[in-house]
Amino acid sequence: MSHSYPLRAILLPITLCTLLLAACGDTSSLPPTPTPSTATLNVFAAASLTDESFNTIATKYHQAHPNIVVKLNFNGSQILEQQIANGAPSDVFASADQANMMKASAAGLVGSSQVFVKNRLVVIIPSNNPGNISSLKDLARKGVKIDIEASNVPAGKYSLQVLDNMAKSPDFGPAYESAVKANFVSQEINVKAVVQKVQLGEADAGFVYRTDVTTAVTNKVKIIDIPDNFNVIAQYPIAVTKNSAHTAEAQAFVQYVLSADGQNVLEQFHFIAVNP
Asked: Domain range for residue 170?
């Protein structure tokens, strides 16, 4: 028995299937797949973090997080604190001392802070040693030109504390402290300026952090260590700023600095890790 169907009845299911297949294959009406938003983090970091350490951390962090660009602003901690106070766009503040971080905290400029690394002071002399300095006691010799950071710069404050510690020792005494201070020829706004003047031979000696003897200057200066019983171990705190436009991203960067990877980088450049 043969059956006869209207042509319309045959074409309708075919048309519906065609429309459904077209709809399934057409993705133009679908929302685009979201991509991670790009953010630039303005990291205000102490001058002693310049060059190798924080530049390396910034590079490694960007490689792991391509959508995050880390923009570094290096200067003396006291200057960075003032820049943040004056409204400079910032996301992270890494200070070389607790005093400037506490000042920023008291002004409501930063969130909670934590120490992320430590550092120690050394004396550097030019590699050709024009001042004929072979020990710390030679710094008290009349005519020796010593460069130091200003007292409101963390390294300068620590250096004065070192001299005060030495003044209390019978090996050196208060006369030594006075003689060394009389040989100060300049007081700089950050530690890098001291390194530059010493390596150029504009000063016979300078007080800087151990970490400031970088690969770039290692053949231009020599180090005289300061014994631990006189030395001051600098503590570096870090915090996310309150005016950060990228709080979550800034906090993630801080956590990276505190992580094993971040700490290994800092140790590599002669800092004292807090999470070794």
From this structure: 120-233
